[in-house]
Amino acid sequence: MDSDRDRPKLLAQALTVGYGETAVQHDLSFAVRPGSIFAIMGPSGCGKSTVLKSLIGLRRPSAGTVQVNGEDYWAASEARRSQLDQRFGMLFQNDALWSSMSVADNVALPLRMFTQLDNASIDALVRLKLALVGLPRAGVRMPAELSGGMRKRAALARALSLDPEILFFDEPSAGLDPVNAARLDDLILELRDGFNATVVLVSHELSSLFAVCDDGVFLDAETKTAIAYGSPKALRDNCAHPSVHAFMHRDGTVNAGSTTGGQNGGS
After folding, report:
1. What confidence tens digit (pLDDT) does each residue in 50-97 have?
2. Total structural domains within the chain
3. Residue by residue, what is the 3-state secondary structure of 5-17?
4. Per DSSP, what are the bridge partners of residue 68?
């Protein structure tokens, strides 16, 4: 590849993840392009979140590699992995806000832990991040005082605090009503289009997948590996694999395209 712009932000090669001797997913290979929104798709229980944990450094894979900007994450020293971790922003499914801290203090926490910024600079950045997610006046409130949608956006503000190179979302729409889920989708698109953010999104929510994702991989629960690659819309319209087709059309969507597909948008 000729430049950093052409190199994948994130590259998984022959990745196998699991618990002990049990493989949850095996032989996964996929690339996440800079400035794209990449979906890790599949039915509940197929191992999407376990794969995500290996991508962000929470679970060492059983085999294979994860490269961040061309650097082998799991081959690096613990100190170097800690540095690479600061390039990641993570929005957990349950938002993972500290209930004993104000929203502002939650957002400020990574800045206090990993930077040498003074309090005035941190306060200014916290206000900026909260305004970015549509919560300009929520900093003084406690997480318990927020609605589910507001908590997700507050957690997103925290994920953005260190200006990460890659944002990871684990089932971001879980527990949200359609209005707040759509609002979060819009925020994700704004981050891609306005800030050229690279996003990896784990989800089985079709409306979100179709609305925001540029590319993706489909994980199969039965064979425990990837069975299709491509954008959710391409898989919906073109993939003939019965498991993928059933997943993508479970809401009654009519197939708008052919039923043949190749490696990109196929089985």
Report:
1. 999 999 999 999 999 999 999 999 999 999 999 999 999 999 888 889
2. 1
3. CCCCCEEEEEEEE
4. 10, 71
